[in-house]
Specification:
Layout lengths: L2 E4 L3 E7 L2 E2 L3 E3 L1 H9 L6 E8 L4 H9 L2 E9 L5 E7 L6 E7 L12 H4 L4 E4 L4 H10 L6 E5 L2 H15 L4 E5 H8 L4 H10 L4 E5 L5 E5 L2 E5 L13 H16 L4 H18 L6 H4 L3 H15 L9
Helix pairs in contact: 1-8, 4-5, 6-7, 8-9, 9-11
This protein binds adenosine monophosphate.
Length: about 300
């Protein structure tokens, strides 16, 4: 079993109603790989950074079991930079700046040893053309391919996105993006349209309102934990994806029932990420903390009902 994730290792500058950061380390793949590292011994990464990316942050990732053999460091270039500002509801945000920098010419190089040994593939948020290249450059088709994307790529590369979706098993996107991708307002209709595009499983993330999993005629609805303090939602979606695929890789079980559990693990990890700016909280969790949060989700969603009462 091996898990490979792609996506950005980046600098983010974030503004929320509770504070503001200068450039801090973020990036979709940083959150994914960290979240997955709680489930697998080795969380592999294919990505690119510039010479400005702090080397000590790379060793922090390695200490957590993230394997950076597939990371390119372009010493004379700048890392990807994203800046966003959250609205007062913390559920919606505006992108203020996206500087692709090293991503502009990113040509993903897959280490030889990964090519025929990637069982689980997490195609994190990146240009769809790069996501497709990674799939094409593997010698074996992974057992499960999960893809995450965002409105930015739908705006500028919808045709490429539709091409890569044909090869994807599970797509994770938020409700707004599901509407943009499908052209449907109803999420149920959107789920039907999107699954015609390729993925047999669709996860629609609804921020503080939880997530929906669609497969065949079945739907599972996971809650989000009501939190007293949400400090910075950045990376919640990526953390969710890393926890989701991490649990599936650990259990090697792709059934709908197990995907429900994977969604709860992903949601539990994401609930930690939002408690602090950046990856700070996600880097220092104990298994006990994760398990106790998962228990809270189980209690939150559980109820008994005597159907004869109606
Ligand atoms: P999330 O809050 O889970 O949607 O992800 C936020 C992370 O995605 C940030 O750390 C950003 O660096 C990264 N990000 C933002 N825009 C893009 C983009 N267009 N492509 C790849 N990664 C991005």
């Amino acid at each position: 079993m091996s898990l490979l994730s792609i996506g950005t290792l980046a600098f983010d500058a974030i503004e929320t109603p509770f504070g503001k950061t200068d450039k801090i380390v973020g990036g979709a793949c940083t959150y994914i790989a960290l979240a997955a590292s709680y489930f697998v011994n080795e969380s592999r990464v294919v990505s690119v950074v510039g010479g400005d990316f702090p080397k000590n942050r790379l060793s922090d990732l390695e200490k957590r079991g993230v394997n950076l053999e597939g990371l390119q460091i372009k010493e004379n270039e700048k890392s990807f930079f994203w800046s966003g500002k959250y609205h007062t509801d913390m559920n919606t945000r505006d992108t203020l700046v996206t500087e692709l920098n090293v991503l502009e010419s990113f040509d993903p190089v897959i280490p030889e040893s990964y090519k025929d040994d990637t069982t689980y593939l997490m195609l994190g948020n990146l240009a769809p053309v790069v996501q497709l290249q990674v799939l094409e450059r593997l010698s074996n088709k992974p057992e499960l391919v999960v893809l995450d994307t965002m409105n930015f790529w739908m705006d500028i590369a919808m045709a490429d996105l539709k091409k890569v979706l044909k090869h994807v098993d599970v797509l994770t996107i938020n409700d707004e993006e599901a509407r943009q991708l499908s052209g449907e307002y109803s999420l149920v209709k959107a789920a039907d349209v999107i699954r015609e595009m390729g993925p047999t499983y669709l996860i629609i993330k609804k921020g503080e309102h939880g997530a929906l999993l669609f497969h065949g005629t079945e739907v599972f609805c996971a809650p989000a934990l009501p939190l007293a303090e949400v400090f910075d939602p950045t990376g919640a979606g990526d953390t969710f994806a890393g926890g989701f695929i991490g649990h599936i890789a650990k259990t090697k079980d792709h059934s709908f029932e197990n995907m429900k559990r994977a969604i709860i693990f992903g949601s539990a990890l994401a609930s930690f990420t939002v408690e602090k700016f950046g990856t700070e909280r996600l880097e220092n969790l104990t298994i006990e903390e994760i398990n106790s949060r998962v228990e809270k989700f189980v209690k939150l969603a559980h109820f008994n009902m005597d159907l004869a009462v109606i």
